[in-house]
Amino acid sequence: MTGIGIDIGSIATKGVLIKDQSYYRVILPTGWNPRAAGHEAIAKLLALSGVERHGVESVVVTGYGRVAFDSADRIVTEIKCHARGVSHLYPEVRTIIDIGGQDSKVIQLGSSGQVVDFAMNDKCAAGTGRFLQVMATALGLEVSELGNVEDPNKLLAVSSMCTVFAESEIVGLLARGNPKEGIIAGLHQSVGKRVAAMARRMGVKPQVAFTGGVALNRGVKRALEEELECSVMVVESCQYTGALGAALLACQSGKQ
Amino acid sequence: MADYREMWSNLDMDLEKHDVLCQVLPEVFGEVYLSQQKRPRGMDFYDFVVSEIHGVRPAELIEHQKSGGKVFGTFCVYVPDEIVFAAGGIATGLCGGSQFWVAAGEKVLPPNTCPLIKASVGARLDKTCPFFRIADMFVGETTCDGKKKAWEILASEVPMHVIDIPQMKRAQDVNAFEREIHSFIKVVEDFTGSKISADSLGESIKLINNKRKALQRLYEARKAAAVPISGKDALLVTQIAFYDDPSRCAQMANQLSEELEERISRKEGVFPEDTLRIMISGTPMAIPNWKLHHIVETSGAAVVVEESCTGTRYFENLVDETAPTLERQVRALAERYMKTNCACFTPNSARIDDILRLAEEYKVDGIIDTNLQFCNLYSTESHLVKQALAEKNIPVLHLETDYSEQDFEQLRTRVQAFLEMLRE
C-alpha cells in the first residue's frame, strides 16, 4: 500500500509518503501558489522514495491550500489529519494543541483517536505563528531563534494579544531599555494564555500533545505548561503531523 | 434587469455607488444559487425577484404610495405587520444583509456593532437601497442595545416609531406588549389616516396567517428523508417573504410546496441519500447573506431547517382568527408574538426547547449554532444551547461570523471538520 499525504499550510507545505513500512517526508515553503507547492511536494516525495506516480494508490490533501489543489483523491481537514497523525504516534493522547502559521486549534480526541470536539482561533493572528513571526521581525530575530533567546526569569508581561497592538507594545518596551530575552518570554506567555483559554473552554484531558510549526519553539511549550498546569508533550517531527495523518488516511482508504 | 434608473433617481439614490452593488449581486447569485443541481421549478419566481431585487418590488411600493398608501419599514419578527395591513398600509422588511453597506454604517456606529445594524444604517445613509428610501415610516423595536441606539440615529432621517418589546415573558409582560400594540394601532391610524376595525384587522390576521401557513408547509417538506429543496433555496424564500407582498408570498410558497410534495411522493431529493442533515440556529440571515448555507451545502451536507428569524421564528405559531372584537384580536396578537423565542428575553429556555424539538422533527445529524459578530445575546446564549445539546448527545458547532468574505476559508475548515466528526 502506497499513499501520499500533503499538508498545504499558509507558510510551509509538508508531504509524507508511506510505502509499506517506509516513511518519506519533505517540507518546502508554500509561497504564493499553494497548488504548485502541492505538486512540488508530490514530485519531491516521488524522487525521494523512488516510487512512480502511478504506484501511488491515493493522495489525501489537507491544510488551507487543500481547496485550491486540483488532483487530490480526497480532501480532508487538518483537524482530522492532525488527530490521525498524533493518535498514530501516541495513542494515549486526548488533547492536541496545534499552532500553525495562521491559526491555532485545540482538538479533543476520544478513546479510539477520533475527533470529539475542536476549537479554532478567530479570524485574527493572535495566538498563531504569524504573531510570533511579526514580533521576531520587530526584535530583529528569526522566528526560529525566539525559543532559544527567551529568558523566563526576566519575563515582562505583554498584555496585548492583538498582533498590531503587541508590536507597538514591544517597541515601547524596547524603547524603555528592557531586555529582549524578557520581552520574548512575555510574548510566549501571551500565545500560551490565548491558546490555553481556548483549550480550557473545551476541557483539557491528558495527555496533551503539541504540534504544528510553533511546537518547535520551546518557550511556547513552557508557557502552555504553565498556563494549563500540566505537562505538554511536543510531537516528534511536529511540522509533519498533518501530512502524516493525511498519508495514513490515504493508505487506509485507497482510491475511495 | 429592467431600467429602473429614473425611479432610483427620483428616490434621491446615489446611482454611481448603487451601480457597484448591482454589478456584484448577479455574479454572487450565479455562483451560489444558479450553480445548484435539481432546483425546483418553483424557484424561478424567487430567482426573478433577486434579478430585479431593487426594481420590481420597490416599483409596486411606489405605486401604492401614488394611490395614497403608506409604506412601513420594519426590522424584526416582533413587529405585528397585521396592524399595518389593517390600516391599508404595506409593511416591508428592511434588514440589510450585505457587506456592501457595512462601511457606510461604520461612519456613525462603533466598530463593535453587529453587521446587520451596520448594514441597515449604512443602506439608509449611503442612499444605496430603494426600500430604505421608499419607507414613509420606520418601525423599530427594543430587542437589543445596538438597535435601540441605531433608531435614534435613523430618526433624524425618517419618521420613526419604536415598539417596546418586553425583556421577560411573565403575564404582566404579555399585558405590556398588548398595550404596545394598542399604541402602535394609534400611530398607524394617525399616520395613514385610516381607522382600524375588527373587520379589517380580522382580514389582515388571516392574510399574515396564510403567509405563515404557506411557509410552514414549505418547511414541512424539508422534513422528508430525501430533502426536496436545498437549504439555500428555502432560505431565499424566507428572506424574500420578509419584504414581499404577503398574499403573493403565500401563493408562491404554496406553489413551490406543491412541487416539493410531488418530489417527496417520488422520493426525489436534491442531495445524495446519505447526506448529513444540519440545523442552523441563531441570528437571522438577511438577504443576500447566504454565506454559511453555501459553505455547508458545498461541503457535502444539507441545511434542513433554520431556527432563526429567517426561519422557524418567522412563521411558527398562528394568531387566533376567531377573536370577535378588536380588543380580543389585539390580545391574540400579543399572545402569538410573545411565543416567539429570541435571545433578547431572559430567561429564554423555550428557545432551547424549540431547538431540541426541531432537531427531532427534522432528524438532524448536527447543529450549527451561529451568531453575527458582536451579537452579545446569541453569543452568550450559545453556552446554554451547547450545554443542553450535549445532554442529549446532539453534536453542535458554534460559529461567530459577519458579512465579510475574509473568514470564509476558516469557516469552511470548521464546518468540514464538524461534518467529518459527524461521519465518524
Structure description:
The complex is a heterodimer of chains A (about 260) and B (about 425). Chain A has about 260 residues and is α/β, with parallel strands linked by helices. Chain A has helices at about 35-50, 80-90, 130-140, 145-150, 165-175, 180-200, 220-230, 240-255, and strands at about 1-10, 10-20, 20-30, 60, 75, 95-100, 105-110, 115-120, 210, 230-235. In chain A, helix 6 packs across helix 7 (about 220-230). The relative contact order of chain A is 0.20. The mean pLDDT of chain A is about 90. Chain B is globular. In chain B, strands 2-1-3-4 form a 4-stranded parallel sheet, sandwiched between helices. Chain B is built from 19 helices and 8 strands. The longest helix of chain B is centred in the middle third of the chain and has 24 residues, at about 200-220. Chain B is α/β, with parallel strands linked by helices and about 425 residues long. Classes of the chains: A alpha/beta (about 260), B alpha/beta (about 425). At the A-B interface, helix 2 and strand 8 of A face helix 19 of B.
Secondary-structure blueprint of this entry?
The complex is a heterodimer of chains A (256) and B (424).
Chain A: E1 2-8, E2 12-19, E3 22-29, H1 34-49, E4 58-62, E5 74-75, H2 78-89, E6 95-99, E7 104-109, E8 115-120, H3 129-138, H4 146-149, H5 163-175, H6 180-202, E9 208-211, H7 218-228, E10 232-234, H8 241-253
Parallel strand pairs in A: 1-4, 4-5, 6-9, 9-10
Antiparallel strand pairs in A: 1-2, 2-3, 6-7, 7-8
Chain B: H1 5-10, H2 15-34, H3 43-51, H4 56-66, E1 71-74, H5 81-86, E2 90-93, H6 102-106, H7 115-125, H8 130-134, E3 137-141, H9 145-154, E4 160-163, H10 171-192, H11 198-221, H12 231-241, H13 246-265, E5 276-282, H14 291-297, E6 301-307, H15 312-315, H16 326-337, H17 349-361, E7 366-372, H18 376-391, E8 396-401, H19 408-423
Parallel strand pairs in B: 1-2, 1-3, 3-4, 5-6, 5-7, 7-8
Helix pairs in contact in B: 7-9, 10-16, 11-12, 11-13, 14-19
